[in-house]
């Protein structure tokens, strides 16, 4: 019963999002911008991991870290490094 309710909420919110996108006539330009931000976030994390600037600090490439860096930009990489160093020594 719980999965049916969660599935129906997911479908309803997906339909609402599609209606909003077509009603506002946003287009697909936001998708290109979002893709560029994701690629630059992954490249930024990759550069920090394999450049050797900070030894012993490795930021994994997963959706949470890439999402953080794509929203916050390069300061997000600093945030993740600070969290990694302060929490895991």
UniProtKB/TrEMBL annotation:
<keyword id="KW-1133">Transmembrane helix</keyword>
<feature type="transmembrane region" description="Helical">
    <location>
        <begin position="64"/>
        <end position="83"/>
    </location>
</feature>
<dbReference type="InterPro" id="IPR010001">
    <property type="entry name" value="BofA"/>
</dbReference>
<feature type="transmembrane region" description="Helical">
    <location>
        <begin position="6"/>
        <end position="22"/>
    </location>
</feature>
<keyword id="KW-0812">Transmembrane</keyword>
<dbReference type="Pfam" id="PF07441">
    <property type="entry name" value="BofA"/>
</dbReference>
<feature type="transmembrane region" description="Helical">
    <location>
        <begin position="34"/>
        <end position="52"/>
    </location>
</feature>
<keyword id="KW-0472">Membrane</keyword>
<protein>
    <submittedName>
        <fullName>Pro-sigmaK processing inhibitor BofA</fullName>
    </submittedName>
</protein>
């Amino acid at each position: 019963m719980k999965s049916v309710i969660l599935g129906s909420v997911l479908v309803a919110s997906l339909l609402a999002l599609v209606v909003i996108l077509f009603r506002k006539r946003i287009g697909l330009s936001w998708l290109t911008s979002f893709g560029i931000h994701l690629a630059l976030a992954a490249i930024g994390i990759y550069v920090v991991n394999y450049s050797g600037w900070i030894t012993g600090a490795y930021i994994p490439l997963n959706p949470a870290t890439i999402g953080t860096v794509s929203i916050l930009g390069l300061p997000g990489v600093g945030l993740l490094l600070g969290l990694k160093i302060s929490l895991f020594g």
